[in-house]
Amino acid sequence: MNVRRGLPRNAFILMMLAPTTVLLLGVTLFPFITALVMSFTNYSLIRPDELAWIGFGNYANLLGSTEFWQALRVTAVFTIVAVAVQMVLGAAIALLLHYETRRSAWLRIIYLLPMAITPVAATFTFRMMFNPSLGVINHMFKAVGLPPQDWLGSPSTALFSLLVVDTWQWTPFIMLIAVGGLAAMDDEPLEASQMDGASFWQTLGHHVLPMLTPYLAFALVFRSIDAFKTFDIIFVLTGGGPGTLTRTLNLLTYKHGIEFLAMGYAAAISIVMLIIAIVASQIFLRRLKLLQPRQARI
Amino acid sequence: MSGVTAIDIHARVRLYRTRSVVGDVLRRAGLAAFAVWCLFPVYWLIAMSLKPEREVMSRRPKIFFFEYQFGNYAEIILDPNTLSYFFNSTVVAVGSTALSLAIGVPSAYVIARYRFRGSSDFAFWILTTRMSPPVAVLIPFFVMYVTLGLSDTHVGLILAHVAVNLSIVVWLLRGFFEDLPYEMEEAAFMDGATYFQAFRHIALPLALPGIAAVGILSFLFSWNEFLFALVLADETVRTVPVGIYGFIGFQTIAWGNLSASAVLMIIPVVMFIFVFQRSLIRGLTLGAVK
Question: Do A214 and B35 touch (CB under 8 A)?
Fold first, then answer.
């Protein structure tokens, strides 16, 4: 399209992108470069005067340590299970809502409550509910004759309990995006296929899910990024324990950076995390062709 | 399907949708179960805010029909800090939402509509700003803020929240703009509109429901954000989540005060969602114009 008046095309594009670029660069560039530079040093707040450039020393130590690979495994399990469960549950609830004839405003509000409540308060409420002796969950377990559990302290239930809290908190986000996608859906091909005798599951597989894909992919990308760097609920509920069974990479960063004040080493962990996130999301976005805009026509 | 009238088709579609009573019951059971799942922890929080201290710490927690009192609420409401926490939260959430939209909407539009070199790399770079683990970024972030005099200022916290939320704002809005029909802008160009006029007078009004929905989400995220608020804000801009955190001591937790403030914090949000839930859902249809 050739537009003769006003700003030239490229100047217009620059003008529209400039504020975002300036703000994001301004806020993220310095912390990123600081972390990157620190990761090549032995900088420690305990011995700041021994500061030295050690090249890839931190990275070599990190990749050679068992705690890194263990934390990576915990992070991967937590992220994959949490996101998978939340995607399925969120999409399922959105579908149930979509086919429900009686639309209730209250139901929607109830479903959004976990997102509306501040995570600090929600996490501490869960800590209270999971409490082995005072908690309401064990109380209900005992009432129906099940053995009480040390939910956050036992190796067999700690990760599970964290996944429960994360799923409670974030399924509504997936549901909300999916509800939006379903509402945007064109019902006509769907009804036509039903008239032709397609079963509910066939319609779902051939029409509904393909139309939902871009929405679910969006939810998947953001939820995966956020789940990968989950910190607060793990920190408050288990602190990475029992032992190191729920210690994710982010908690490992915390341990080295904030507890041991080994800033260089902690920075190296976070750079590795960033690389993992970038590589994983590049693969995913390219496969789903989400990077190229669908309608770039001007 | 000769001889089938439109009325027949509608009747059949309706028949299909309600074809089985069992399906109906199962669907509603599923919806109800999910409602209980979402509601119970919130209910428990409210219950804790109403129970007297010894009841909260009871070994036999009462789920219903517990003894209740409003002392925690009275304490929170009479505490002069509460008002300033709520004021700060509101200023920061409204300010960061407005700024995110003001700078995010134009970028999202250009990324969605214009073909230019590096456009997908630019979109990806915006996404990467969400990837850096907060724990690692916080310390240099804090140092930078102290140097620039931004720590413990409203502007500083607003900018931090914009940085946190801009990725989701731009990516969601990009979806809306991609789904908008291009024909109207094309017609506007034919009539001699500039690039900016096509954006301002054609695309922007069409995208408004979507922009509103993204605004609501961004508001929620900022209203509840904790980590940056904790590190970057001191006395002057302490927000409600940070205030709530203050009830958590090293040994004991003031459950009554904690839960009462958290409940007070949900009330405006629930009212907000109640008023806007329709536009929230409509907006999230990514601008599909039928």
Answer: no
